[in-house]
Design a protein that fits this description.
9 helices; 11 strands; elongated
């Protein structure tokens, strides 16, 4: 059994799981015997048990698991070439309902609609109980290897683009698809409105002038005191950016300040207050004076 750290596929060969890179698998199909995966001796239950043991030894889950024909039901039928792609799943469900399948009330469907050279739809079904068993092991993508071989797919790109992995069908599938599209459209509109509102708010804030704090001071009548006031106001402009001046009251004896911010920056600034100016009385962060 091969092991890879990069993305890999799991296929069933010689009653064991074989890990191959995507390139190796499709390269192998060019020379492989197309009937080798048709009749495995082990049951799907035994294969699941073996897969659980294998995955416990590996850190990385496979990109996909390809199931041989013996574990799925396959059918082929012509379909209308004008049928829109959103209705292909509905056509596959109708075709699957006409197949003789194993006893199960719910079937998972994988299909591929091929338009050239003839308009043909290949459908594979798998009981949901087995699909759920794979899902519990962390396998999210299951394909029918028979569909890969019948349609001569030569690369992982063509497989993932042209073939739908096994998925469930619900009676209100079309309604759910329409509802999902409506929800996606609504989500996009809401996102656009939110972005527009955010941009408008940011632009409004950007162009809104900063509010001016209410400064109060009794202007002295003599010229010397007036010069002290002007000098004090000029020096107040040297407050560090980490401090916000909330209120100023200037008198002949003191300058009363109310400041919000960092205490260490305030103390350093206060220590350099000119001695010829009235002394400071400071309230810091609503407490003080300091």
């Amino acid at each position: 059994m091969s092991f890879f750290s990069r993305p890999y596929l799991l296929i069933w060969r010689d009653n064991a799981w074989l890990a191959l890179s995507k390139h190796q698998y499709f390269q192998q199909q060019q020379t492989a015997d197309r009937s080798q995966s048709a009749l495995p001796e082990s049951s799907l239950d035994e294969a699941l048990h073996q897969l659980a043991s294998l995955l416990r030894q590996r850190k990385r889950k496979p990109t996909a698991v390809l199931l041989p024909d013996a574990w799925v039901e396959l059918s082929e039928s012509a379909f209308d070439a004008e049928l829109p792609q959103p209705l292909h799943f509905l056509a596959a469900q109708t075709q699957a309902g006409q197949m003789f399948v194993r006893e199960s009330s719910v079937q998972m469907i994988s299909y591929m609609a091929k338009r050239t050279p003839s308009t043909v739809m290949h459908v594979a079904t798998l009981p949901k109980t087995y699909f759920d068993a794979f899902a519990q092991l962390g396998i999210s993508r299951l394909y029918s290897e028979g569909l890969v071989l019948r349609n001569n797919l030569s690369s992982w790109r063509s497989l993932s683009y042209l073939m739908r992995p096994f998925a469930s069908y619900e009676e209100d599938y079309l309604e759910r698809q329409t509802e999902r599209r409506h929800r996606n459209t609504l989500a996009i509109l809401i996102a656009l409105v939110a972005l527009s509102s955010s941009w408008f708010a940011m632009d409004l804030v950007k162009h809104t002038p900063e509010p001016v704090a209410d400064f109060q001071w009794p202007w002295p009548s003599n010229d010397k005191s007036r010069m002290d006031v002007i000098s004090s106001l000029t020096y107040l402009r040297t407050l560090p950016a980490t401090l916000r001046l909330d209120d100023v009251r200037i008198s002949l004896e003191h300058i009363h300040l109310s400041v919000t911010g960092n205490a260490e920056d305030l103390q350093l600034w206060q220590a350099n207050w000119p001695k010829q100016l009235p002394p400071l009385q400071i309230m810091l962060n609503g407490q003080g004076p300091i």
